[in-house]
Amino acid sequence: MKFDWKKTFVLGFGFLGISVVWPLFNSLIPPFLEDLGLSALVVGFILTWDNLINMFLQPWVGARSDRTRSRWGRRKPWLMAGAPLAAGFFILVPFVRTNFVLLALAILGTNIGMALFRSPTVAYLGDLYPSEQRSKANGVINLMGGVGGAIALFGGGALFKMGVPLPFIVGALLLLIAVAVVLAFVREPEAPAIDASHEAAPGVWDSLREVTSGENPNGLFMLLAIFCWFMAWNAVEAFFTLYVREVLGIAVGTGTQMLTAFAAMLILFAIPSGLIANRIGRKTTIMIGLFGMMVGLILVLMLTNPTILLVLLALMGGFWALVNINSLPLVYDVGGNHAIGALTGLYYFASSLAAIAGPIIAGGLIDLTSYSVIWLFAAVFMVLALVMRSRIRVAAPVRD
Description:
By secondary structure, this protein is mainly α. The chain has helices at residues 5-35, 40-46, 49-67, 76-92, 100-122, 124-128, 131-162, 166-185, 204-212, 218-246, 252-258, 260-280, 282-302, 306-335, 340-368, 373-390. Helix 3 (49-67) packs antiparallel against helix 15 (340-368).
């Protein structure tokens, strides 16, 4: 089967839209919360709301989308419902930032809207591509996501300096445009018939039991590895702008722009990461990425010069691409193709659980020590991810 580059870039617009919103959310909302007098622990807890929702809603949506049948297909109805809801509440955030109750409601509405369409969007990777093409396709999709992240971080930081609401308004509009491209131009494959004798098969809990039970421990180690590496990076992302403001004396808008270095390297290494995995295997590729992230995090802890930080962020962006591009294809290799939506939800179950625990625990450690502790915290969990990933053995078309 010949790889369809055009189709893949079009599909990548869905991930571009998702990736525009989250960097703005994670970098601009924490200062709003801190300005209301909230502690780092409480800020970390509020930033986990999306993951609490994702942990339960995204697996359910992914499984339900496997069984959705409509004139638009299985996945598109969820995109049509979730994207407008997320965009509407996201625009409200800066206008209600001085009122905690209204701000909390706007954050909650954005989180629910995003959770409704993320799993179905990402499930297209399993729907449209065979196993041997998924790393390459995921590279293209994440390249588009990296473009969205870079636009959000650099452009969002500049817009924030011009007017606080501007990055939220522009980000919401870009989300809607990107999702509209997917709705208009992505052609879903014909959905298989629903087998009534396997009514429970698409359920996330059934998928969770299937990949973690039995004599083969691959599923358990897979979920633990995903949990550990997302514990690490979500803690860094949640508190980065506060770290640069409190420790380095850098303005929030400038700190947001600094993360563009990470996003830029994620863009550059997105497609090469898939090609590298095809040549040396997903296991080796991910292990190299995790080791590079671990070293980078330790160096940031030791070296606090802003210029060095910028260089290290760029290097870590390249190593993170090696991990991020190949992790979801690994989930499909371990879990099989019988319930792509449910497996996608299972991937987000593990990552969301990590993103809940990461900012809360890191926030508590910050309250006890300083903002610099986030780098040590993240490095420890990257080491644990290395250990868990080394235990996975998968026989797949892509050498592992």
